Amino acid sequence: MEDDLREAAAHGIFDPFNEHLDHLDCIVTPNGDTILHIHVSCARVVSTNFIKQVLVNCAKLLSQENSDGNTPLHIAARHGHTDAAEKLIKQAEALHDAIDIQSGEVVTKKKMAAVRDMLRKVNKKKETALHVACSTKWKKFGSCESKEDPHFTCSANDSGETPLYLAVDNTCTNIVAELLNNPNSQSLEYGGPDDDTVLHMAVERWDTEVVLMLLEKQSSLAAKKGRYGWTPLHLSAYEGSSSMVATLLDKDKSIASITDGTEKFTALHMAALQGFKHAMNEIISKCPDFCKLTDRRGNNILHSAVYSQNEEVLKAILENSSLISLIIGKDDRGNTRVHAFMALNLPLPSFIIDGDTDAFILWKKLYYNIPKDFTIKVENNSSQWIDNQHSLGFGISGRPSDPSIPVVDSNNLNAPISKSLSEFMETNLEDVSD
């Protein structure tokens, strides 16, 4: 494409192309961009008259792709040119009007088919124009596209992202609403990359409005596991969003019992480990039956609170009289929560020293009776497990890590549990149970 023609296309000036009418489709850049691609991508204000002149003279340009497989409609979507998109759609209809009037055939179905073909055309990344619009946050454009072809359910692109997923990711609420409410919404794909769902993404975006919309349309999403077996509730607990936790639990309280795919953590474990007291309390108050669940090592939420080294979280659990039995429970290695607390060389907080409720008294009793030279029995791969906790927040790979979460020093935890401590624990637990 010569420079003067490129300049004319960019500014929407058609006159220089009058002498090239028989080969407009051959005027392309090294990237395969036609004069329509150039105009839609470069013009600040798209000239619908220029688009009409081009397509009247060369209808082929309507769907001609560049080297990336993008049509002019893809480019219009990338730049948010709603007027250009509408003109391209109308020109597709008008071209079939002219053809069918001459042939005497019924035009409606052919016009609809022409528009559908254009809207459903994918580039080399398997993206339709709607994918592009959703990924570039052009909300009005995406809404226009979803209305034009309401019966089409777009599949995922090469990255595993559907238009619905991209709309949620980019907080295009109006497009999400259009897609959920269109006549073919029952066929929508709610998945996303890495086994996540659109609800996982809505939770990551802290978008309560979209979360409610998705749950209203597809309530089963609340229990769906994504990466590493995390449900949306795991994710909201990890990020400390108490309002999101409440929103999810109000729809389905049973999801609080779901464990992840690696450590068998519930969302409550995660909230406690991350030190998010409000998210933790939300789960405790709404789902009291699930507060004593343990992970794969037999740890309950009191263990999690100890490992978080967050005094507010620990205090909140100990102040809940219904959870006092958590103090004396042992994990799979025979350790109580108080032993884990001592292994971290943590001083007793003032709220425990000064506390006079049963939980605080029991904690102090266990704490002061533990031998100073005790050792803690852990499994052989404890060092690896603890290192994972340190680097990933709490032993799960893939989600955002929090290296500030303190962990037990694995160098001091590898010796087998002593006989004297075993005897003490048995005696002490018998005393407590009495």
Automatic annotation (TrEMBL):
Question: InterPro entries attached here?
Answer: Ankyrin_rpt (IPR002110), Ankyrin_rpt-contain_sf (IPR036770)
Offer one Pfam family short name for this entry. Ank_2
What SMART domains would the database entry show?
A: ANK
The UniProt transmembrane annotation reads none
Does the keyword Oxidoreductase belong to this entry?
no
Q: What PROSITE patterns is this protein classified in?
A: ANK_REP_REGION, ANK_REPEAT
Keywords (A to Z) from UniProt: ANK repeat
Swiss-Prot/TrEMBL ANK repeat ranges: 68-90, 194-226, 228-260
Keyword NADP attributed: no
Which PANTHER family does UniProt cross-reference here? NO MECHANORECEPTOR POTENTIAL C, ISOFORM D-RELATED, PROTEIN ACCELERATED CELL DEATH 6-LIKE
The protein's name:
Uncharacterized protein
